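Quick entry between incubations.
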Amino acid sequence: MLTALDKKLLVEVADIHDIPQGAYNIRKNGEGIIRNNSANIEIISKKDKPGIDILIKPGTKNESVHIPVIISEEGLNDIVYNTFKIGTNSDVLIVAGCGIHNGGSEKTQHDGVHEFFVGKGAHMRYIEKHYGEGKGDGERVLNPKTIIHVEEDGVVELEMDQIKGVDYTIRDTYIKLYRNARLIVNEKLLTYLDQSAESKIVVELLGEDASAQIISRSVAKDDSKQVFYLSLKGHSKCRGHIQCDSIIMDRAKVSAIPEIVAHHSGAQLIHEAAIGKIASDQITKLMTLGLSGEEAEETILQGFLG
Amino acid sequence: MLELINIDVELEGDNGWDKVLNDINLSLERNKIYVMTGPNGGGKSSIAKTIMGIHKPSRGKILIDGIDITDMSISERARRGIGYAFQTPARFKGLKVKDLLNLAAGEREIDHCEILYNVGLCAQDYLDREINSTFSGGELKRIEIASLLARQIKVALFDEPEAGIDLWSFQRLTETFINLHQKSDTTLVIISHQERILRLADVVIMVENGRISEITNKDKILEEISQLDTGCEHRDNCGKGVMEYADCIR
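Done. Structure below.
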């Protein structure tokens, strides 16, 4: 059922080299094609709209769910709604992500709407990778929308990567943190040619002692454009920190629009944003170790995007 | 052997082109320690950077083992065995200590722990740390020195290696230089004002006003250094000026 091309896309977006362990659901060209439930994790198709419900039993530990989406048809406009219910005191890894191979001239688009309900004391690590390829001049478009509710004492780690081949993206992430909930976001973005990317992350720190750390690193090359709109809203005694760091090259454009809003005198919110080209002393140092100028630049960018 | 022949260097500053090095002639032999000293702004770092290829000379030639490297890039000189530990080392977001040492070593196998031990750092604490703004100036200097120790080089240039390094590690640092000297036939060029570093020198090179004012030995220089006045000779009669209006009597 999976072609060689499909398998390559799966490696790129979900690091899946074969059928994954645990629960999974692989969606290809707008349809679910392979699915597996585990004793603690159940995946059910939605009845009213495209998408799935992923139900994780309370207390589920060290299990993973892979739900990659691959698209190899040109001209497809795929919208999917996925809902995750992460049971109390569970500890799970969820790997999503979308890979598009567009060999044609028509636009291919995937819009994933993901909503997470993270129960009390649960820990969720969510990895989302976006990847595009194909020689055709048809655009590859990915517009993910992510909504996360983190209950008391819950911990959420988000890793969002877009490193290659996506022509146009608007990512919209909205997170609510209740009492003592903790959020860590690591966002990595690389754009080149005339690609365009917008990332909006809004975090509402609602409960007492909620905390959020957002680290966003990006590289904009060629004529590409990036816009970051990162916002922390503190409604109680809470802590939040945004670090938004961009390397700009060639004729690219980058906007970093910070927002920190405090509705409570106990809110401690910090925003740091920096845009700049690669520091010349870094390139010089690596050249003194024998790297060429291009190798030095590549090494610095790779390190920066981890 | 590294030779600098009639080297002039001009750099563009705020007030146009400025001649920072004037007719520099040096022959640096293998397996010797050279310490370059002299007043601030005298041209010591400029000589080191010219050897590394960071500054391009407007006149003169640089030869390594008889091969003309004057027109070679920084990378090419590095591959021919020249290394430079910067006075103010760069920080790298995302690059770990281990990564930098591996880049320095190239294809050579290295013992990361021993290299870090030699610069007084605990490998367990540092190997996987990013060389970012959490590093203190002293830590950064040690990593910089380590990046030279990881390489097999003919000419090692250390630009004020002791700056920012505390007294306890100072002893370790001098031992590191002695070790490097004993274990390899690398030409060591150390820019320093420190007596303890000067004591390591086979040859002391005094640099002032963009020129080599004297090539001498450590005993002579250690005697002279107590009398060395690095300030302006007119200081006693200085007009200073008032508020924002500077007034020099020269």
